[in-house]
Design goal:
It is built from 15 helices and 19 strands. The strands form five sheets. A seven-stranded mixed beta sheet has the order 7-6-15-16-17-14-18. It is an alpha/beta fold. It is globular. Among the domains are: 201 residues, FAD/NAD(P)-binding domain (3-Layer(bba) Sandwich), CATH 3.50.50.60; 109 residues, Guanine Nucleotide Dissociation Inhibitor, domain 1 (Orthogonal Bundle). Helix content is 35%, strand content 19%.
């Protein structure tokens, strides 16, 4: 008889864990509080417009390819990919720069920012390539349960090349002098949810992913990836229970016996929570079974939350591209208001995604869909419509100024989403959007463990445990935890059979 596992949550990590567990022969049931799969990577469809509600950047295509290959599939079995060129646009206070997909063109751009920078860029990316190879193929696949996992010849051999004790800000400044080139190189770590001065230089691997790996778009949007993973899980025999909310993990003799939901009681040999780690501990477990105290969580450095706008326009905008970053105001003040002195920002940087530039299926004919994102501190209060509208007016006017066209008078659909929504829709700790910041002391073994310290058969996956935030890391997180579960139960089974023989 197959062993059974319940997985709480159907985000990228939950879907990944479900398929890997099913591949290992387990009976898998996924419990999801929302009406469909995806978690934070949900999809919004209204008035003919289609929006990705979560991640919008498709980087590290090799990680996605590797994921599907492990099930004998190809990406093309599920969705088509297009490499974006330009990769993205950066608006400065006096113009904009289109970041080219072609590497030779990228080098030319670097030299325009800073004469001779191309030579430094070659050196920088050679180091970043090593970190990417080591990081993606080795480090992120470590379950982070013991220091001994990192007793690896290749890791020790290149430990200084990994730059884990140097900040990426110092690392970048060592190579480049141009302020704008530095900003361009520091931008990807914003996905990691910490300031460049607090992020290990190991994460220059993100620059390699950006410049060499490229920025891609899955036809239909990022939700196409969710649908692909869901279809794969169904094919593998995974059962999904939607519109069902986890309420309690019942524990007996330090073992999780079942999951109580608002609709049923599910028994299983193992529970994997892909829900918010803090929510699982604080809401689903009795206090004596929690691995981490409330004081522990309050000391965590959280990645930002965000203020999102999903906007439909009754016209096509001129001279815009798929991804745009508005760096037209100084970052220092905005950064301080996110990390050092949390408050609503005075003059924020922001990001705009317009999928309809690339994909004519996501908006009605002659229309554009836009997603606008302002990074803000997690846990902010006064998250009301008045506050949200104030920032909408502010950033749209800046966008109008830089693109030279009216936008406000063409809005025919708008939905907002921010801190309080992340908390209510996804049970997100302090309404964060991206999990824990990837500071040195919140990396690998310093993250919340993927296995409970007090409940024998309770495991965790997702952005608050190893390897960390981002879509590719979450795909890997599901694989990592599945391997840990199978390994633990193989050991248990071996000990059990040895005991039977000896008895």
């Amino acid at each position: 008889m197959s062993l059974s596992v319940i997985i709480v949550g159907s985000g990228f990590a939950g879907l990944s864990a479900a398929s890997f567990m099913a591949k290992s022969g387990w009976k898998v049931t996924v419990i999801e509080k929302n009406s469909g799969p995806g978690g934070r990577a949900g999809q919004l469809k209204e008035d003919g417009f289609t929006f990705d509600m979560g991640p919008s950047w498709y980087w590290m295509p090799d990680v996605f390819e590797s994921y599907f290959e492990k099930f004998g599939k190809k990406i093309s079995d599920f969705y088509s990919l297009k490499r974006l060129d330009p990769s993205y646009r950066i608006y400065w206070n006096d113009g904009f720069t289109d970041v080219p997909a072609d590497y030779d063109e990228f080098i030319k751009m670097a030299d325009e920012f800073e004469p001779g920078a191309s030579e430094q860029l070659e050196k920088y990316l050679a180091e970043a390539a090593y970190k990417y190879e080591t990081g993606i193929n080795k480090l992120v696949h470590k379950p982070g349960r013991s220091f001994t996992e990192f007793i690896d010849r290749d890791i020790f051999k290149g430990v200084f090349r990994l730059d884990v004790f140097t900040s990426i800000k110092k690392h970048i400044h060592k190579y480049f002098k141009s302020k704008r080139l530095r900003q361009l190189m520091e931008f990807p770590v914003l996905f990691l949810g910490a300031l460049p001065e607090n992020t290990p230089a190991l994460y220059s691997l993100m620059n390699y992913a950006d410049i060499k790996g490229g920025t891609w778009y899955p036809q239909g949007g990022m939700y196409s990836v969710v649908k692909a993973m869901y279809e794969l899980a169904i094919e593998l025999g995974v059962e999904f229970c939607f519109n069902e909310e986890a309420e309690q993990i019942f524990i007996q003799n330090d073992t999780a016996k079942n999951l109580v939901t608002n609709r049923s009681v599910h028994e299983a040999d193992v529970i994997i929570s892909g829900a918010d780690y803090h929510f699982t501990e604080e809401k689903l477990l009795q206090e004596n079974y929690r691995s981490y105290s409330e004081a522990y969580w309050e000391k965590r450095v959280m990645a930002p939350s965000c203020l999102l706008y999903f906007v439909g326009l009754n016209k096509k905008l001129n001279n815009v591209i798929h991804h745009s970053l508005f760096f037209d105001v100084p970052f220092e003040q905005h950064a301080k208001e996110i990390y050092d002195d949390p408050q609503w920002p005075s003059n924020p940087l922001f990001y705009v995604s317009i999928n309809s530039v690339t994909d004519d299926t996501v908006a009605p004919a002659g229309c554009d869909n836009m997603v606008l994102l302002i990074p803000i501190s997690s846990g902010l209060q006064n998250d009301d419509e008045t506050t949200r509208e104030k920032y909408f007016q502010q950033i749209i006017k800046r966008m109008e100024k830089h693109t030279g066209q009216s936008i406000l008078d063409s809005v025919i659909y708008k939905k907002t989403f921010s801190v309080s929504d992340f908390a209510s829709e996804y049970n997100s700790f302090r309404g964060n959007a991206y999990g824990l910041a990837n500071t040195l002391m919140q990396t690998a073994i310093f993250k919340p463990s993927c296995k409970s310290k007090k409940v024998k058969n309770l495991f965790y996956t997702g952005q608050l445990t190893v390897p960390g935030p981002g879509v590719p890391p979450c795909l890997i997180s599901g694989e990592v935890v599945a391997k840990e579960v199978v390994k633990d139960y193989d050991r248990y089974s071996k000990r059990y059979h040895e005991k039977l023989i000896n008895d």
